[in-house]
Amino acid sequence: MSERIPVKDISPIKIHQPDSREHNDNYAPRSRIYVRAVQGPLETFRRYFGLFFVGLFAVLPWLRYEGHQAILFDIGEQRFNIFGLTLWPQDLTILAWIFIIGAFALFFITTFAGRVWCGFMCPQTAWTYMFVWFEEKLEGSRHQRMKLDQRPMDLDKFWRKTAKHLCWLAVAVLTSLTFVGYFTPIDALFVDFFTLETGFWVSLWVWFFTFCTYGNAGWMREIMCTHICPYARFQSVMFDKDTFTVTYDTNRGERRGPRGRKTSREQLMAEGVGDCIDCHLCVQVCPTGIDIRNGLQYECINCGACVDACNGVMDKMGYPKGLIRYTTESMLTGGHTHIIRPKLVGYAVVLLVMIGFLALDLFTRVPLDVDILRDRNQLYRETSDGLVENVYTLKILNKSQHEMRYQIGVEGLLDARYIGPQEITVRGGEVYVEPVSVAVNPYNLDSNITDIRFRISALGEDNESVEVVEPTKFLYR
């Protein structure tokens, strides 16, 4: 009993507090990234490529096709108009094929050329660069913007900041109106919005997407790419040794460091000094603020801005271009890039198969939908002249965009009497509802339940092949 019980010290351990004064502090809160302007062939291509798709986005909802808006996703009416094609909830498979094709096309491109979707086609990137352009025009270059933010508020800073945010807000409003214009008639939308006559829900969605555009492209920027977008997290799964990505050539660039222009490259190589002069331009032009020299990182969007910046420096130094370039891991290690490889071929095959299914679905699609609903209040009734009658509700959906005439007939019963309109006219995109009935002599019935068919055929020279046969039941006793 005299032995002492050992006691273990469980006092809390002092947690390491990082020094926020250090340059590379992984624990430091996010600081604003001042993107530096860059010139080069990749940057020029990216600008015109993005401008083309932004222009396409802005123009498409204004196009007219046969008197109506060419592209209109009318959720209230549950129909999508895409030029001459109208999709209904019954055509969900077509939309599914389109989304699947888009996904596998993205997988295919990512496996081949890395995250180029993010760098060249993503709306977040396009609108971010658009907002940065306003910053450069109103606040100056990267260095000037940094100095401006460090200054206390004065008249010059106030008007520049105010003008920038007003431009951002104007672009955000126009973007939101255009986007909402894909879901409601855009010509009426613009008139109603600027005359303050839009309804509650339309106004809500316009201001909601305005807030999203203004916040995403103006304030969040790289946060969308590095923390919110799920594609950044799983895109590296599709990479392999033969995927083209923006890469820093470590063997050629290290050991990095500044040097005079008069020092020959051969002399520096003999001293073990690489081609990288450590100018940090590749970091300053990066929209996500990473250092590509640290290797492949999920934050890299493969925009190629660092490639143009580095090539410009190499030109000035008289060094060969390509210290940072689009290349593969195989080429960096001295091997050969295999363009045709199982993963890429697999994605291509699946993509072609999905395109084939979409084409088949489109070509076999009938622009007519018929539904027959039996009267649930009464299974059958006997008429005054001794016939047995069943009552149905006939629903005919004209899935085309043109007015159509249809002929209605009944098959499957001997000497059946169809009571209802023989021919009807249905306008494009409308549903025709009509109660009809079928009567027959009970002596012509072989059982209590008889299978019958309603045949609806389109009339006219151009619509001879449009025909739907809808089965139903005829009940007696």
UniProtKB/TrEMBL annotation:
The transmembrane segments are: 48-65, 94-114, 166-186, 198-217, 344-363
PROSITE patterns noted in UniProt: 4FE4S_FER_1, 4FE4S_FER_2
The UniProt record lists the 4Fe-4S ferredoxin-type domain at 266-295
SUPFAM superfamilies assigned = 4Fe-4S ferredoxins
Alphabetical list of InterPro entries matching this protein: 4Fe4S_Fe-S-bd, 4Fe4S_Fe_S_CS, Cyt_c_oxidase_cbb3_FixG, Electron_Trans/Redox, FixG_C, Helical_ferredxn, Ig-like_fold
* One cellular component term from this protein's GO annotations in UniProt: plasma membrane
Asked whether the UniProt record includes Transmembrane among its keywords, one would answer: yes
Q: Which UniProt keywords apply?
A: 4Fe-4S, Electron transport, Iron, Iron-sulfur, Membrane, Metal-binding, Transmembrane, Transmembrane helix, Transport
Keyword Transmembrane assigned to the entry: answer is: yes
Q: MF terms per GO, please?
A: 4 iron, 4 sulfur cluster binding; metal ion binding
Note the PANTHER family from the entry.
FERREDOXIN-TYPE PROTEIN NAPH
The name under which this protein is listed is Cytochrome c oxidase accessory protein CcoG
